[in-house]
Design brief:
CATH topology of the domain at 27-129 in chain A: Arc Repressor Mutant, subunit A
Radius of gyration of chain A: 23 Å
Number of strands of chain A: 3
Structural class of chain A: mainly alpha
Number of helices of chain A: 7
CATH class of the domain at 27-129 in chain A: Mainly Alpha
Largest sheet of chain A: 3 strands, antiparallel
Largest interface: A-B, 72 and 70 residues
Order of helices and strands of chain A: HHEHHEEHHH
Strand order of the largest sheet of chain A: 1-3-2
Helix content of chain A: 55-70%
Oligomer: homodimer
Shape of chain A: globular
Chain lengths: 172, 172
DNA sequence: CGCATTCACTTAACATGTTAAGTATCTTCG
DNA sequence: CGAAGATACTTAACATGTTAAGTGAATGCG
Protein backbone atom coordinates (compact mmCIF):
# COMPACT_ATOMS: atom_id res chain seq x y z
CA UNK A 1 0.00 0.00 0.00
CA UNK A 2 2.92 2.31 0.46
CA UNK A 3 3.83 1.75 -3.13
CA UNK A 4 3.50 5.20 -4.53
CA UNK A 5 5.51 6.85 -7.29
CA UNK A 6 7.10 10.07 -6.20
CA UNK A 7 7.14 11.36 -9.71
CA UNK A 8 4.11 13.58 -10.29
CA UNK A 9 4.30 13.04 -14.03
CA UNK A 10 3.59 9.38 -13.52
CA UNK A 11 -0.13 8.90 -13.87
CA UNK A 12 -0.91 6.21 -11.35
CA UNK A 13 -4.31 5.12 -12.57
CA UNK A 14 -5.45 4.29 -9.06
CA UNK A 15 -5.06 7.90 -8.03
CA UNK A 16 -7.61 9.10 -10.51
CA UNK A 17 -10.54 8.24 -8.31
CA UNK A 18 -9.11 10.47 -5.65
CA UNK A 19 -9.71 13.43 -7.94
CA UNK A 20 -13.46 13.22 -8.40
CA UNK A 21 -13.80 16.71 -9.87
CA UNK A 22 -16.79 18.67 -8.76
CA UNK A 23 -19.75 16.70 -7.62
CA UNK A 24 -21.24 15.69 -10.88
CA UNK A 25 -24.83 16.54 -10.09
CA UNK A 26 -23.83 20.07 -9.15
CA UNK A 27 -22.19 21.06 -12.39
CA UNK A 28 -23.70 24.05 -14.08
CA UNK A 29 -24.67 22.28 -17.31
CA UNK A 30 -26.43 19.63 -15.27
CA UNK A 31 -28.31 22.20 -13.19
CA UNK A 32 -29.46 23.97 -16.31
CA UNK A 33 -30.46 20.74 -17.97
CA UNK A 34 -32.49 19.54 -15.01
CA UNK A 35 -34.22 22.87 -14.56
CA UNK A 36 -35.14 23.09 -18.20
CA UNK A 37 -36.43 19.56 -18.23
CA UNK A 38 -38.57 20.25 -15.18
CA UNK A 39 -40.13 23.16 -17.02
CA UNK A 40 -40.59 21.48 -20.38
CA UNK A 41 -42.12 18.44 -18.77
CA UNK A 42 -45.08 20.68 -17.97
CA UNK A 43 -45.59 21.83 -21.53
CA UNK A 44 -44.97 18.75 -23.58
CA UNK A 45 -48.27 16.90 -22.93
CA UNK A 46 -50.34 19.88 -24.00
CA UNK A 47 -48.27 20.46 -27.13
CA UNK A 48 -48.41 16.81 -27.94
CA UNK A 49 -52.18 16.83 -27.83
CA UNK A 50 -52.10 19.39 -30.57
CA UNK A 51 -49.58 17.44 -32.61
CA UNK A 52 -46.72 19.83 -32.01
CA UNK A 53 -43.22 19.34 -30.73
CA UNK A 54 -41.46 21.88 -28.62
CA UNK A 55 -39.42 23.16 -31.57
CA UNK A 56 -42.37 23.37 -33.92
CA UNK A 57 -44.16 25.42 -31.31
CA UNK A 58 -41.13 27.71 -30.98
CA UNK A 59 -41.18 28.31 -34.71
CA UNK A 60 -44.88 29.08 -34.85
CA UNK A 61 -44.56 31.49 -31.96
CA UNK A 62 -41.66 33.25 -33.58
CA UNK A 63 -43.54 33.51 -36.87
CA UNK A 64 -46.69 34.83 -35.24
CA UNK A 65 -44.72 37.73 -33.84
CA UNK A 66 -42.57 38.53 -36.84
CA UNK A 67 -45.04 38.01 -39.69
CA UNK A 68 -42.46 37.30 -42.38
CA UNK A 69 -38.81 36.38 -42.09
CA UNK A 70 -36.04 34.74 -43.95
CA UNK A 71 -34.87 31.37 -42.74
CA UNK A 72 -31.57 32.49 -41.25
CA UNK A 73 -33.27 35.15 -39.15
CA UNK A 74 -35.88 32.65 -38.02
CA UNK A 75 -33.15 30.27 -36.96
CA UNK A 76 -31.68 32.97 -34.75
CA UNK A 77 -35.05 33.89 -33.29
CA UNK A 78 -36.20 30.36 -32.56
CA UNK A 79 -32.68 29.37 -31.50
CA UNK A 80 -32.45 26.42 -33.85
CA UNK A 81 -29.60 25.31 -36.05
CA UNK A 82 -30.04 25.57 -39.78
CA UNK A 83 -30.38 21.87 -40.50
CA UNK A 84 -33.01 21.37 -37.80
CA UNK A 85 -34.97 24.34 -39.01
CA UNK A 86 -34.75 23.17 -42.60
CA UNK A 87 -36.31 19.84 -41.74
CA UNK A 88 -38.99 21.29 -39.51
CA UNK A 89 -40.01 23.91 -42.07
CA UNK A 90 -40.37 21.20 -44.67
CA UNK A 91 -42.75 19.32 -42.39
CA UNK A 92 -44.69 22.38 -41.27
CA UNK A 93 -45.11 23.41 -44.87
CA UNK A 94 -46.42 19.95 -45.76
CA UNK A 95 -48.97 20.36 -42.97
CA UNK A 96 -49.90 23.78 -44.34
CA UNK A 97 -49.06 25.51 -41.10
CA UNK A 98 -46.59 27.85 -42.76
CA UNK A 99 -46.02 29.33 -46.20
CA UNK A 100 -42.83 29.89 -48.08
CA UNK A 101 -41.82 31.85 -51.12
CA UNK A 102 -38.44 32.78 -52.43
CA UNK A 103 -37.56 36.44 -52.24
CA UNK A 104 -37.65 38.24 -55.55
CA UNK A 105 -34.62 40.34 -54.92
CA UNK A 106 -32.42 37.42 -53.88
CA UNK A 107 -33.35 33.97 -55.10
CA UNK A 108 -31.30 32.34 -52.38
CA UNK A 109 -33.49 33.70 -49.65
CA UNK A 110 -36.71 32.03 -48.69
CA UNK A 111 -39.33 34.08 -46.89
CA UNK A 112 -41.40 32.23 -44.32
CA UNK A 113 -44.70 33.18 -42.77
CA UNK A 114 -47.38 31.50 -40.70
CA UNK A 115 -50.52 30.41 -42.53
CA UNK A 116 -54.12 30.97 -41.58
CA UNK A 117 -54.28 27.39 -40.42
CA UNK A 118 -51.16 27.96 -38.36
CA UNK A 119 -52.70 30.97 -36.69
CA UNK A 120 -55.75 28.94 -35.78
CA UNK A 121 -53.65 26.16 -34.35
CA UNK A 122 -51.75 28.65 -32.26
CA UNK A 123 -54.97 30.10 -30.97
CA UNK A 124 -56.05 26.65 -29.84
CA UNK A 125 -52.81 25.94 -28.01
CA UNK A 126 -52.05 29.32 -26.49
CA UNK A 127 -54.62 29.26 -23.65
CA UNK A 128 -53.39 26.05 -22.12
CA UNK A 129 -49.81 27.09 -22.69
CA UNK A 130 -50.38 30.39 -20.93
CA UNK A 131 -52.13 28.65 -18.07
CA UNK A 132 -49.17 26.36 -17.54
CA UNK A 133 -46.77 29.26 -17.61
CA UNK A 134 -48.91 31.09 -15.09
CA UNK A 135 -48.91 28.10 -12.77
CA UNK A 136 -45.13 27.81 -13.00
CA UNK A 137 -44.82 31.49 -12.23
CA UNK A 138 -47.16 31.14 -9.28
CA UNK A 139 -45.24 28.19 -7.84
CA UNK A 140 -41.80 29.61 -8.23
CA UNK A 141 -42.67 33.24 -7.61
CA UNK A 142 -42.96 35.98 -10.19
CA UNK A 143 -40.18 38.04 -8.70
CA UNK A 144 -37.76 35.17 -8.46
CA UNK A 145 -38.59 34.21 -11.98
CA UNK A 146 -37.52 37.61 -13.25
CA UNK A 147 -34.41 37.44 -11.13
CA UNK A 148 -33.55 34.01 -12.47
CA UNK A 149 -33.95 35.10 -16.04
CA UNK A 150 -31.73 38.08 -15.48
CA UNK A 151 -29.03 35.85 -14.11
CA UNK A 152 -29.38 33.52 -17.06
CA UNK A 153 -29.05 36.42 -19.44
CA UNK A 154 -26.02 37.64 -17.60
CA UNK A 155 -24.43 34.21 -17.76
CA UNK A 156 -25.03 34.13 -21.47
CA UNK A 157 -23.43 37.50 -21.93
CA UNK A 158 -20.49 36.51 -19.74
CA UNK A 159 -19.65 33.71 -22.11
CA UNK A 160 -20.52 35.42 -25.36
CA UNK A 161 -17.00 36.36 -26.33
CA UNK A 162 -15.29 33.35 -24.82
CA UNK A 163 -13.76 31.11 -27.44
CA UNK A 164 -13.56 33.61 -30.25
CA UNK A 165 -9.86 34.35 -29.77
CA UNK A 166 -8.89 30.75 -30.41
CA UNK A 167 -10.59 30.62 -33.76
CA UNK A 168 -8.92 33.84 -34.78
CA UNK A 169 -5.46 32.60 -33.90
CA UNK A 170 -5.81 28.95 -34.84
CA UNK A 171 -7.59 29.19 -38.14
CA UNK A 172 -6.58 26.68 -40.77
CA UNK B 1 -49.80 50.86 -64.69
CA UNK B 2 -46.74 51.70 -62.84
CA UNK B 3 -44.98 48.50 -62.18
CA UNK B 4 -44.54 48.25 -58.47
CA UNK B 5 -40.93 48.21 -57.38
CA UNK B 6 -39.91 44.82 -56.15
CA UNK B 7 -39.13 46.31 -52.81
CA UNK B 8 -40.84 44.05 -50.24
CA UNK B 9 -40.60 46.68 -47.54
CA UNK B 10 -43.57 48.56 -48.93
CA UNK B 11 -46.35 46.22 -47.93
CA UNK B 12 -46.51 47.80 -44.51
CA UNK B 13 -46.21 44.56 -42.59
CA UNK B 14 -49.97 44.65 -42.11
CA UNK B 15 -51.33 44.68 -38.58
CA UNK B 16 -49.27 42.61 -36.23
CA UNK B 17 -50.98 39.38 -35.17
CA UNK B 18 -53.44 39.82 -32.40
CA UNK B 19 -52.46 37.52 -29.52
CA UNK B 20 -48.74 38.14 -29.05
CA UNK B 21 -48.36 36.21 -25.78
CA UNK B 22 -45.22 36.87 -23.79
CA UNK B 23 -42.25 38.06 -25.72
CA UNK B 24 -40.97 34.85 -27.11
CA UNK B 25 -37.30 35.36 -26.37
CA UNK B 26 -38.07 35.97 -22.70
CA UNK B 27 -39.82 32.73 -21.97
CA UNK B 28 -38.26 30.65 -19.26
CA UNK B 29 -37.57 27.58 -21.41
CA UNK B 30 -35.82 29.79 -23.92
CA UNK B 31 -33.70 31.49 -21.27
CA UNK B 32 -32.64 28.14 -19.90
CA UNK B 33 -31.91 26.77 -23.34
CA UNK B 34 -29.77 29.73 -24.33
CA UNK B 35 -27.85 29.73 -21.09
CA UNK B 36 -27.13 26.07 -21.29
CA UNK B 37 -26.04 26.33 -24.88
CA UNK B 38 -23.69 29.19 -24.01
CA UNK B 39 -22.08 26.95 -21.40
CA UNK B 40 -21.91 23.78 -23.45
CA UNK B 41 -20.45 25.62 -26.38
CA UNK B 42 -17.34 26.03 -24.25
CA UNK B 43 -16.98 22.34 -23.50
CA UNK B 44 -17.88 20.65 -26.75
CA UNK B 45 -14.66 21.33 -28.71
CA UNK B 46 -12.49 19.85 -25.98
CA UNK B 47 -14.71 16.78 -25.61
CA UNK B 48 -14.82 16.36 -29.32
CA UNK B 49 -11.04 16.27 -29.53
CA UNK B 50 -11.15 13.28 -27.25
CA UNK B 51 -13.86 11.60 -29.25
CA UNK B 52 -16.57 12.08 -26.65
CA UNK B 53 -20.00 13.58 -26.79
CA UNK B 54 -21.51 15.50 -23.95
CA UNK B 55 -23.62 12.56 -22.87
CA UNK B 56 -20.82 10.04 -23.07
CA UNK B 57 -18.78 12.32 -20.86
CA UNK B 58 -21.65 12.56 -18.39
CA UNK B 59 -21.79 8.80 -18.17
CA UNK B 60 -18.07 8.38 -17.65
CA UNK B 61 -18.09 11.03 -14.94
CA UNK B 62 -20.98 9.38 -13.19
CA UNK B 63 -19.29 5.99 -13.38
CA UNK B 64 -15.98 7.30 -12.10
CA UNK B 65 -17.70 8.49 -8.96
CA UNK B 66 -19.99 5.55 -8.36
CA UNK B 67 -17.73 2.66 -9.32
CA UNK B 68 -20.49 0.18 -10.12
CA UNK B 69 -24.16 0.77 -10.77
CA UNK B 70 -27.12 -0.75 -12.43
CA UNK B 71 -28.40 0.86 -15.59
CA UNK B 72 -31.53 2.39 -14.12
CA UNK B 73 -29.59 4.09 -11.37
CA UNK B 74 -27.05 5.34 -13.88
CA UNK B 75 -29.84 6.79 -15.97
CA UNK B 76 -31.02 8.77 -12.99
CA UNK B 77 -27.53 9.96 -12.12
CA UNK B 78 -26.53 10.98 -15.63
CA UNK B 79 -30.02 12.34 -16.30
CA UNK B 80 -30.55 10.32 -19.44
CA UNK B 81 -33.57 8.41 -20.63
CA UNK B 82 -33.34 4.66 -20.76
CA UNK B 83 -33.24 4.31 -24.53
CA UNK B 84 -30.48 6.89 -24.91
CA UNK B 85 -28.44 5.28 -22.19
CA UNK B 86 -28.94 1.86 -23.69
CA UNK B 87 -27.51 2.97 -27.00
CA UNK B 88 -24.62 4.89 -25.50
CA UNK B 89 -23.63 2.02 -23.23
CA UNK B 90 -23.58 -0.30 -26.20
CA UNK B 91 -21.17 2.04 -27.97
CA UNK B 92 -19.00 2.73 -24.94
CA UNK B 93 -18.75 -0.99 -24.32
CA UNK B 94 -17.69 -1.56 -27.92
CA UNK B 95 -14.96 1.02 -27.37
CA UNK B 96 -13.93 -0.75 -24.17
CA UNK B 97 -14.48 2.33 -22.06
CA UNK B 98 -16.92 0.56 -19.76
CA UNK B 99 -17.61 -2.98 -18.62
CA UNK B 100 -20.87 -4.72 -18.05
CA UNK B 101 -21.98 -7.91 -16.35
CA UNK B 102 -25.39 -9.12 -15.33
CA UNK B 103 -26.09 -9.22 -11.63
CA UNK B 104 -26.08 -12.68 -10.06
CA UNK B 105 -29.01 -12.12 -7.78
CA UNK B 106 -31.26 -10.68 -10.48
CA UNK B 107 -30.58 -11.62 -14.07
CA UNK B 108 -32.53 -8.66 -15.32
CA UNK B 109 -30.09 -6.19 -13.86
CA UNK B 110 -26.91 -5.24 -15.63
CA UNK B 111 -24.07 -3.82 -13.56
CA UNK B 112 -21.95 -1.17 -15.27
CA UNK B 113 -18.50 0.09 -14.36
CA UNK B 114 -15.81 2.19 -15.98
CA UNK B 115 -12.85 0.33 -17.45
CA UNK B 116 -9.17 1.01 -17.04
CA UNK B 117 -9.14 2.55 -20.48
CA UNK B 118 -12.10 4.68 -19.51
CA UNK B 119 -10.30 5.93 -16.44
CA UNK B 120 -7.30 6.93 -18.52
CA UNK B 121 -9.47 8.72 -21.03
CA UNK B 122 -11.12 10.64 -18.22
CA UNK B 123 -7.75 11.61 -16.84
CA UNK B 124 -6.79 13.03 -20.20
CA UNK B 125 -9.94 15.09 -20.53
CA UNK B 126 -10.44 16.30 -16.97
CA UNK B 127 -7.72 18.98 -16.88
CA UNK B 128 -9.02 20.91 -19.85
CA UNK B 129 -12.57 20.42 -18.65
CA UNK B 130 -11.74 21.79 -15.25
CA UNK B 131 -9.90 24.73 -16.76
CA UNK B 132 -12.94 25.64 -18.82
CA UNK B 133 -15.18 25.40 -15.80
CA UNK B 134 -12.81 27.60 -13.84
CA UNK B 135 -12.85 30.21 -16.56
CA UNK B 136 -16.63 30.20 -16.65
CA UNK B 137 -16.71 30.61 -12.90
CA UNK B 138 -14.23 33.45 -13.08
CA UNK B 139 -16.21 35.28 -15.74
CA UNK B 140 -19.61 34.92 -14.17
CA UNK B 141 -18.51 35.11 -10.56
CA UNK B 142 -18.22 32.25 -8.12
CA UNK B 143 -20.80 33.67 -5.75
CA UNK B 144 -23.35 34.34 -8.45
CA UNK B 145 -22.76 30.87 -9.81
CA UNK B 146 -23.73 29.33 -6.51
CA UNK B 147 -26.71 31.60 -6.28
CA UNK B 148 -27.83 30.68 -9.77
CA UNK B 149 -27.58 26.99 -9.07
CA UNK B 150 -29.60 27.36 -5.93
CA UNK B 151 -32.34 29.09 -7.86
CA UNK B 152 -32.29 26.39 -10.48
CA UNK B 153 -32.60 23.74 -7.83
CA UNK B 154 -35.45 25.59 -6.26
CA UNK B 155 -37.22 25.89 -9.57
CA UNK B 156 -36.83 22.19 -10.08
CA UNK B 157 -38.29 21.45 -6.67
CA UNK B 158 -41.15 23.88 -7.27
CA UNK B 159 -42.26 21.86 -10.24
CA UNK B 160 -41.49 18.42 -8.93
CA UNK B 161 -45.02 17.53 -7.92
CA UNK B 162 -46.80 19.46 -10.64
CA UNK B 163 -48.61 17.19 -13.04
CA UNK B 164 -48.87 14.18 -10.81
CA UNK B 165 -52.47 14.80 -9.82
CA UNK B 166 -53.69 14.62 -13.38
CA UNK B 167 -52.25 11.20 -13.93
CA UNK B 168 -53.82 9.97 -10.72
CA UNK B 169 -57.28 11.21 -11.68
CA UNK B 170 -57.17 10.64 -15.42
CA UNK B 171 -55.54 7.27 -15.62
CA UNK B 172 -56.62 5.08 -18.48
C1' DC C 1 -47.62 -24.56 -8.60
C1' DG C 2 -49.19 -21.49 -12.35
C1' DC C 3 -50.27 -17.45 -14.41
C1' DA C 4 -50.96 -12.57 -14.61
C1' DT C 5 -48.18 -8.50 -13.24
C1' DT C 6 -44.37 -5.99 -12.55
C1' DC C 7 -39.62 -4.95 -13.45
C1' DA C 8 -35.24 -3.92 -15.92
C1' DC C 9 -33.82 -3.23 -19.62
C1' DT C 10 -33.68 -3.17 -25.09
C1' DT C 11 -35.62 -2.12 -29.82
C1' DA C 12 -38.08 0.51 -32.77
C1' DA C 13 -39.65 4.70 -34.86
C1' DC C 14 -39.68 9.32 -35.44
C1' DA C 15 -37.89 14.16 -34.39
C1' DT C 16 -34.10 17.08 -33.27
C1' DG C 17 -28.94 18.34 -32.28
C1' DT C 18 -24.53 18.74 -34.40
C1' DT C 19 -21.03 18.92 -37.83
C1' DA C 20 -19.62 18.47 -42.62
C1' DA C 21 -20.53 18.62 -47.40
C1' DG C 22 -23.37 19.97 -51.29
C1' DT C 23 -26.11 23.28 -54.30
C1' DA C 24 -27.72 27.29 -56.23
C1' DT C 25 -27.32 32.16 -56.21
C1' DC C 26 -25.09 36.42 -55.59
C1' DT C 27 -20.99 39.50 -55.31
C1' DT C 28 -16.37 41.02 -56.33
C1' DC C 29 -12.78 42.21 -58.74
C1' DG C 30 -9.46 41.66 -62.43
C1' DC D 1 -17.56 39.60 -68.77
C1' DG D 2 -16.17 35.72 -65.88
C1' DA D 3 -14.04 32.96 -62.67
C1' DA D 4 -13.15 32.92 -57.51
C1' DG D 5 -15.20 33.61 -53.27
C1' DA D 6 -19.11 34.53 -50.23
C1' DT D 7 -24.12 33.56 -48.99
C1' DA D 8 -28.32 31.16 -47.92
C1' DC D 9 -29.92 27.50 -47.56
C1' DT D 10 -30.37 22.07 -48.04
C1' DT D 11 -28.66 17.16 -47.58
C1' DA D 12 -26.22 13.83 -45.41
C1' DA D 13 -24.54 11.25 -41.56
C1' DC D 14 -24.30 10.20 -37.02
C1' DA D 15 -25.77 10.82 -32.02
C1' DT D 16 -29.35 11.82 -28.79
C1' DG D 17 -34.36 12.96 -27.14
C1' DT D 18 -38.85 11.02 -26.71
C1' DT D 19 -42.54 7.79 -26.68
C1' DA D 20 -44.26 3.15 -27.51
C1' DA D 21 -43.65 -1.61 -27.90
C1' DG D 22 -40.96 -5.81 -27.13
C1' DT D 23 -38.26 -9.33 -24.31
C1' DG D 24 -36.76 -12.00 -20.64
C1' DA D 25 -36.62 -12.43 -15.72
C1' DA D 26 -38.61 -11.80 -11.01
C1' DT D 27 -42.97 -11.47 -7.97
C1' DG D 28 -47.52 -11.78 -6.19
C1' DC D 29 -51.27 -14.32 -5.37
C1' DG D 30 -55.00 -17.66 -5.77
Amino acid sequence: MTKRPADPADDGAAAVRQVPMRDFSRSLPMSLLRAREAVMRQFRPSLREHGLTEQQWRILRALAAIDTVEVTELARTAFLLGPSLSRILRDLEARNLIERKTAKADQRRSMVSISEKGVKLMASVAPSSEAIYAEITRRFGARKLVELQEMLGELERSLAELGKAEEASAEE
